[in-house]
Amino acid sequence: MYAAALCMEKIGSVDEAKMLCRHMIRNFDSQKARELLNYLEVAPRIAVKTGDDAAFPNEPAGAQRARPGMPPREASGGNAYIIIGIVAATLLAVILPFMMMPSGDVDASDLTGFLVVLLLSGITLHVVFSYVLKRICENADSEPGILIWIPILQIFPMLRAAQMSYFWLLMLFVPFVGGLVFSLVLWVKLSQACDKPAWLVILLLVPGLNIGVLLYLAFS
Q1: Which of 25, 107, 156, 216 is the most exposed, fewest CB within 10 Å of its CB?
Q2: pLDDT value of position 180
Q3: Inter-residue contact 33 to 5 (CB < 8 Å)
Q4: Residue 172 near residue 187 (C-beta atoms within 8 A)
């Protein structure tokens, strides 16, 4: 597999070579694969005209394009606006219910208005969180599909992106520590799939910092 990755790198199929290297690192802890992956990350692309380049005459040779079935990623400037929007929507969804909370004598209209605001805030937080998870899966070179937007079921595309078996869900039935162990392993695997250090999972346990870690995994 290392030889195959090296050959792909030589002919300009850098994305495929990276996928093979990541697979060897996860499954065989191959030092040669790590060295090749580091080289592919920092070295300039080999400008080789391939059959794919002929189909895109207006693009420079070896230009990076989205994988088949995967949406193109936004430029870093676009990501900055998305992150600002996510942070603003999250803060608004958290703060607004407290501002609208009725006090003193409460009539039916006040209570109804508060419940509507609470419902809209919950929907907003779910959509924002699901979108962040979607971007994390895409950074891990995995297409999340429609399930990433559905509560509870969104765990399945996350497991697929982390290359974990669905049997890991049985860990959730282990009393006391099962859920914690499952979450730690899942986020370690997702961090590694996004080419980020595994120790980031520690910051996920810190309130406030965990939001920054999720955004880092999703948009870096």
Answers
A1: 107
A2: 92
A3: yes
A4: no
- Reported confidence tier of residue 207, pLDDT bands at 50, 70, 90: confident
Tokens of 75: 């430029």
With tokens 């980031």, the residue in question is 200
Contact 12, 45 (CB under 8 A): yes
Residues 162 and 26: beta-carbon distance below 8 Å: no
* Conformation bin of residue 75: beta by default, left when phi > 0, alpha when psi is -120 to 50: beta
Integer Cα distance of 32 and 21 in angstroms: 9
| 200 exposure class (CB count in 10 Å sphere: 0-12, 13-18, 19+) | buried
pTM for the full model?
Answer: 0.65
* Residues 203, 209 contacting (CB under 8 angstroms): yes
Structure-token pair, residue 77: 């400037």
Long-range contacts for 190-197 (Cβ within 8 Å, ≥24 apart)?
Answer: 190/136, 190/140, 190/158, 190/161, 190/162, 190/217, 191/217, 192/26, 193/22, 193/139, 193/140, 193/141, 193/142, 193/161, 193/162, 193/163, 194/136, 194/139, 194/140, 194/220, 195/22, 195/41, 196/220
The token duo for 1 is: 């597999």
